């Protein structure tokens, strides 16, 4: 797809990927509603295949390729959930996946890619090294690049999470998603525009990687500082995601690492759900803006649940 997705594109994507994804549950908690001062509806993409919403976009983008393109395989650079999601999509559809990963990527994520049959090409942990290595891999293999977020088919797949939420919960006043590269947020904002136009879109972003917040202020894409425990949100916006976000997102709320930890503790203790730091950011943003959201009906996207338990234990101990 070479244009911004419309309503029909999201409907088509949802039908396309349904056989390969979970329709994740929407969960509520009276205890959390009391703390938040509003009615909160959590869309639990932490319970999605590969433990994150990324399964939606990777599958839709791979399914959207022509038979000839798909036969040559798919490729990307990613150190996280998109790497596993694309490898999974390729395995299901009977093709090859070539994943460029920085040598410093967590071993558990490398094992996940290998487990789905992906072929890993390691590089130095810089964006330039990733992009250069990926170009070499594509030249060698003829595979099609599936970018983690700056790809219209990917963001259309991510949009289906919000479509499902709106099908289950009526009359949401607000919906809040995390923002890193913007693939999820742009998709969520488009789904909201088409399926629940009265709902206001907000985003949560770590204060230590507030490039999206600064981009909204300056009107141009700012670079990420990348100093936060929310390691899934370190990427800057793309030239496809930023215009959509700028047009359809009302406000980006930044939260400190301590606010993320505090929100994550509430989620783990009261919802009994494992949600990663990045996935907890929108709930932290909700708590920070609770006066504005008082008495409202608010949807929150839990983007993922892939955690390093040793690191989480240390964070809780510090918090």
Automatic annotation (TrEMBL):
GO process annotations (BP): D-serine biosynthetic process
InterPro entries the record matches: Ser/Thr_deHydtase_PyrdxlP-BS (IPR000634), TrpB-like_PALP (IPR001926), TrpB-like_PALP_sf (IPR036052)
The keyword Nucleotide-binding is annotated on this UniProt entry: no
Stored Gene3D superfamilies: 3.40.50.1100
Pfam families attached to this UniProt entry: PALP (PF00291)
Residue ranges of every copy of the Tryptophan synthase beta chain-like PALP domain listed in the record: 18-304
Cited SUPFAM superfamilies: Tryptophan synthase beta subunit-like PLP-dependent enzymes (SSF53686)
CDD domains with a match to the protein in the record: Thr-dehyd (cd01562)
Recorded family membership: Belongs to the serine/threonine dehydratase family.
The protein's name in its UniProt record: Pyridoxal-phosphate dependent enzyme
Organism field: Chryseosolibacter histidini
């Amino acid at each position: 797809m070479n244009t911004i997705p419309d309503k029909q594109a999201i409907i088509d994507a949802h039908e396309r990927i349904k056989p390969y994804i979970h329709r994740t549950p929407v969960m509520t908690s009276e205890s959390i509603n009391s703390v938040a001062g509003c009615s909160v509806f959590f869309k639990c993409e932490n319970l999605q295949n590969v433990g994150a919403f990324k399964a939606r976009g990777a599958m839709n983008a791979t399914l959207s390729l022509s038979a000839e393109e798909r036969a040559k395989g798919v490729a990307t650079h990613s150190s996280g959930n998109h790497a596993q999601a694309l490898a999974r999509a390729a395995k299901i559809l009977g093709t090859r996946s070539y994943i460029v990963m920085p040598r410093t990527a967590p071993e558990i994520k490398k094992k996940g890619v290998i487990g789905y049959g992906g072929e890993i090409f390691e590089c130095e942990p810089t964006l330039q090294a990733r992009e250069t290595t990926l170009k070499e891999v594509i030249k060698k293999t003829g595979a099609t690049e599936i970018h983690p977020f700056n790809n219209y088919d990917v963001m259309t797949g991510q949009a289906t999470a919000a479509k499902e939420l709106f099908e289950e919960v009526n009359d949401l006043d607000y919906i809040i998603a995390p923002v890193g590269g913007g693939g999820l947020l742009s998709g969520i904002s488009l789904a909201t525009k088409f399926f629940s136009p009265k709902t206001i879109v907000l985003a949560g972003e770590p204060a230590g990687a507030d490039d999206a917040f600064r981009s909204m202020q300056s009107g141009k894409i700012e670079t990420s500082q990348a100093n936060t425990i929310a390691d899934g949100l370190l990427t800057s916006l793309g030239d496809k995601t930023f215009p959509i976000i700028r047009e359809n997102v009302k406000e980006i709320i930044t939260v400190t690492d301590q606010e993320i930890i505090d929100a994550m503790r509430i989620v783990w203790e009261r919802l009994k759900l494992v949600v990663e730091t990045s996935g907890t950011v929108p709930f932290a943003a909700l708590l920070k803006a609770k006066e504005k959201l008082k008495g409202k009906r608010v949807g929150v996207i839990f983007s993922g649940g892939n955690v390093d338990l040793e690191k989480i234990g240390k964070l809780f101990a510090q918090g």
